[in-house]
Design goal:
Layout: H1 10-21, H2 26-35, E1 41-46, E2 49-54, E3 66-68, E4 71-75, H3 80-100, H4 104-121, H5 123-128, H6 139-150
Parallel strand pairs: 2-4
Antiparallel strand pairs: 1-2, 3-4
Helix pairs in contact: 3-4, 3-6
Length: about 160
């Protein structure tokens, strides 16, 4: 059975995707746009989003990717295989942005940053207890949405 959004013609899906992101999801898209000239690297399209594989920065102590609306940022240090799976996960955050609009930053982005920093700091203890990074909100939702929309596996 075909998923509902695939019944919409591809060109119309793209227009609707960007229209909703740049109206309903304006705050996170502006933030993502402002980072474009700062986080330089190879860029490509992924299901309508712009993926930037960025070079490490001193001020950005982030060993993982992040998503701000239609802008996905992935560190260049990851393997090509892992970058593809991370793009699926981050695209899930892009879908969360579509759904939540202006609530995305406080409901998803902030908890995601807090969880990421906490998980990195205590990774060994979490792994011993069998807790994976994407086992908790909002990361588990990003995995499910990214997989659903792209038909690809995250991580």
């Amino acid at each position: 059975m075909e998923k509902g959004f695939r019944k919409i013609p591809r060109a119309l899906r793209g227009v609707l995707f960007h229209l909703v992101q740049w109206t309903w999801g304006l705050p996170q898209n502006l933030a993502g746009l402002l980072l474009l000239p700062v986080l330089r690297g190879k860029r490509h399209r992924f299901h309508g989003a712009l993926v930037t594989v960025y070079r490490s920065k001193k001020w950005l102590n982030n060993t993982s990717g992040f998503s701000l609306g239609t802008f996905i940022y992935i560190p260049e240090t990851w393997s090509e295989h892992d970058k593809k799976h991370l793009a699926v996960h981050e695209y899930g955050h892009t879908v969360q942005s579509l759904i939540l609009g202006p609530l995305y930053l406080p409901v998803v982005a902030l908890p995601s940053v807090i969880w990421s920093r906490r998980y990195v700091r205590h990774a060994r203890a979490y792994r011993r207890r069998g807790v994976g990074y994407t086992d908790r909100f909002p990361e588990n939702g990003a995995d499910r949405l990214g997989e659903y929309v792209t038909d690809m596996k995250p991580y």
